[in-house]
Amino acid sequence: MKQIRIVFIVGLLLTILVSFPVWRKPAERLFGYPGDALGLLGRTVYLQDKSISGGGKFVADMNFPFGFYLPKVQEVLSLAPVGLISHFANEVSAYNIWLLLSFPLTTIAMFILLRYLIYSFWPSLWGSLIFTFAPYHFWHSFSHISLAHIQWLPVFVLALLGFDDKPSRRRAFFLILSFLLVFFTSFYYGYFMLITAAVFFALRIIYDFCEKGENYLTRQRLIGFLWTAAFGIIFFAYPAFLAYQDYQNAQVFSVEKSVYQRDFEQLLYLSARPWDYLLPSANNPFFGKLSENFRNSLHLWESSLPRRNFFWIDVGNLEGTLFLGFTPLILAFYAIGNRKRTRLQKEIFIFAALALIAFFFSLPPFIEIGKFKLVLPSMFLSWLTLIFRTIARWGMVVMLFISMLAAIGLDVLLKNIKQNWQKRLITVVAFALLTIEFINVPPFHFTDISKTPAEYEWLAEKEGDFVIAEYELDDNIALFFQRIHGKKLLARYYRERLPLHDPDSREKLRKLGVAYVLFHKKSPFDKFNPTNERAPVGQVLPPPAALKEYKMVFSADNTLVFEL
Length: 564
Known about the structure:
Distance between the termini: 65 Å
Largest sheet: 5 strands, mixed
Radius of gyration: 25 Å
Structural class: alpha+beta
Number of strands: 11
Helix content: 55-70%
Strand order of the largest sheet: 8-7-9-11-10
Low-confidence stretches: 252-256
């Protein structure tokens, strides 16, 4: 317990360091950048203010008039804590607290997993910091709170290893429980871990047969699998039924309906590229500029090709930052090369195989080489489902097993050295190199939300239940400020089909019940956003000529408000 407390304090102190200055004013500064985080926070708070809880409901105020479908099966463990903490703190503070807690919680979980495998403190701590402060974790914490909570992944792997070592009813229960924690935090990670578990047991069968000439499926293990299946049915039968109802209830124009209508082409563009694993994070103060220059050069070169090849299209910083670190990779390969000199031969083989398989799952379904298509393993996953379109996120699974292999590699290296001073030196160098490779501050990453735009304060004072139509503004930002003014938001479906430059749009908007039109000349967060690096900055949009026929009732720095 003493070591766990020390590890938690280390993780917490490092989190405080990299999240500066958010913790100084957590109610006014959001960790990360404008994007999905703003929309999620605004939607969650708005529903809470309206006392809307539970699932299976359409919320007409969002995406009017179609409504926003509130599913019965949600990533409740990534969202519910925000609501609970908000009873004691501002909603933005609650979001920041729960988001940033993912870092020290991950440090503890990964440390416990590594201590189960190796009995050395420093390699275990080093491996836990690799996984916790991986660039992937940071970039998704800037936008996706569910993908930021990676602490349950090591817990699931620990349960998997424990069940494999000695199958029993208790360990089967723990395995399903850990999967529940993963699944109801992030559906993506639940999907990944389900496939990882299936591949893990397949590898165990192959390993025992090839290395030992034994049958892995003993009577004890078969009974353990039966217990696992039984607990799985008990805990997942009802959520599966609710998920089917969600699918039936979601409407065509609902935000949630699009989840079931993914296009295969999205897998091509939202998959990883091999170099993503070797490019340092763009916000690394030492090597970030090199990565940024490479990505920009690649983008320019791809744009000049006579025929577009999706493989050369850069997926962007948010999904494409999958850097594993050169030091972790070197020590991971060291562990693989020296596996026969350790007691973890089986584990090293399986972790390396799982990392390699996850790597191929993250790549595009196929690669075009001239007139031929090279089919990759992710193609077979696409046959299962297209719901999980961003397969680049398999990179987190690669990082998980590389972290484990790297910690084992450092442990093996230290045990092969006799001089204590040499052990200390190598340990210090390992921590120093990891810091240089993974550090991403300065600058610090936060969004100042202390000031509410004047147009939303003006709307908040207007009485009545009416609809507003916001043009030239990201939907997530609109949702975020809906919690301020409380008015209904016209669906994007109509805003796209009723452009303001069309003189006929005015009457059609009035028939839809729109009381005010907001034309945003510039975003309220008009600064460079690394998670959307190619979005224009400093661009002021001129109002369409047709707006002269509208009655302007309010003017702010960046927004014009017209009454219909």
